[in-house]
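Hi R.,

Here's the chain you asked about this morning:
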Amino acid sequence: MRLLLIEDEARIVQLLTAALAHANFVVDAVSTGVDGRAALAAAPYDAAILDLGLPDGDGLALLLATRASGNQIPVLILTARDAVEDRVRGLDSGADDYLVKPFATTELIARLKALLRRPGGALGTILQAGNVALDTIGRDVTVGLVRIVLPRRESATLELMMRRVGRVVPKTILEEKLYGIDYELESNAVPVHVHHLRRKLQRAGATVEIHTVRGVGYLLEETRS
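And here is the predicted structure, written out as tokens:
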């Protein structure tokens, strides 16, 4: 899943980026409301973490503008404002959750996953396609009764395809979800992940196949008997 972190404290950005990457999230970090608004308009993020005390204004203004534009991205406010009135104001402004600093990274990650598991969210619990199952929480992948180990980006690629079984997943979407805005992406990065994933599924006896739709993207569908 790809997250947007809008936070101006460098120490917190460094801490969260590392912790979230370890939890298999791709994180883009910006430090101002202006950059946050531009990022939200430019990429399809699965969730956002929003500080309220931004150097160029109140984060609530950004939140209100985001909701006014029709963007319903899950937003978790992360702030030092701990008064009940502040919490109520944040939630009433459109936040989906509110966490006060100082915080435990484990709790923040758990709250994000809970948001993404809500109906319409980007994170289910168990995905199934043919005889392939993916636990999106534990990141376990099984083919029948056999567990296969996938690197982070191959696992994320499989998840994106399993959420769209029978539909083409554009290569551009895979690039946006798998890599952050600061990553220097090579043109063959996604095809390499797909090649390795396809080979591992075939070797494990998966009853799904990944098809390349040239010039567009990739299609996961159950094997035709």
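One quick note: Helices lie at 10-22, 33-42, 59-68, 84-92, 105-117, 152-162, 171-178, 189-203.

Cheers,
M.
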